[in-house]
Design a protein that fits this description.
Number of strands: 0
Number of helices: 15
Oligomer: single chain
Distance between the termini: 62 Å
Order of helices and strands: HHHHHHHHHHHHHHH
Largest sheet: none
Helix content: 55-70%
Radius of gyration: 20 Å
Amino acid sequence: MTHTERRRSGVGSVIAHHESIGSAESLATIDQPPGDVEELPPAKIYHPYSIHVLALLMPASIFGVLARLGLQALVTYNGESVFPLAYIQATGCFIMGIGLSMKGPFGRFYGPLYTAMTTGFCGSLTTFSGWQVDVFDSWVNTGQFNRNGLRDAIDGVTKTWVTLVLSLSSLLFGVHIGGLILPYVPAPRTPSKNVRYTLTAIAVLTYAATFPAYFLLPANFRHQATAALLFSYPGTLTRYLLSINLNPRMKTIPLGTFVANAFGTALLGMLHVLQGIPSAVSPNACSLLQGLGDGYCGCLTTVSTFAAEVVTLQGWKAWFYVIVSWMTGQLLLLIIMGSSFWAGGVREQVTCSFQVS
């Protein structure tokens, strides 16, 4: 297979063949449903703004948030050997790698499922903003551990490079596993029009159900999950729209993903500041602040797509993208969170009190 043919077959194939792409403009297709580069017939190509594509992002976002919150709760315990977000980023990037390698089969079956799996589920499971805040928390020692400044710096550096190594290697491992199972993937018949519209309707109803779930389930569920579910799809949709519209505009870095990660990190920093204000804030407001952080910011920012772009970019552009993204996130948090902590009046720890039923 020639270099041109591999590029046409998609990012997953480029990664699998240990190649790279010189222009970030070519990475715009990562979030889009399978199209011309997969050599599909016109009847199986879905427009990025198709109702089928946008609707399937709804349940995918919800399940991504639930998987992130559930996995984080599972791996958070006293004496943990690995910081919780490491499991989350590695799992999401691994699944992302499988999705990238199987973009063609997804397109031949039902293209919107690819976008639901990668952009929706993996993008909502992984979180760039959470990673950045976790690193910044190490710098300022928000956990108030008995250690000096050098240990704070080591902890922040560790969370930085371990997350990068785990994410990139997990993505590559996912692409490898996807390539191994690709020859054995059956070719099921494309779902009929009635089935496609039924799936779309179920997807919309799934997200609509998050509103009564927020009000009808016990109040202590709100800060734990139901508030986050409300904001999951808006966050994913914002990231998807930024990717579609801005990623093709620059050759150096994927601008849409960069903007989504930077904006989401800044917003999460502001939410943390609001949660650290000692003055009384209502339990409902605290739950919404937590939901915006876990739901909107968590789904707006992504490590899985970021890792796929880094692995695919050529040479210095990949490192430039990593450094600029990381430094932008840390500088934004330094301005927003750092200035608030050091000026006084805002605590590093969350002071919000959540309603318990």
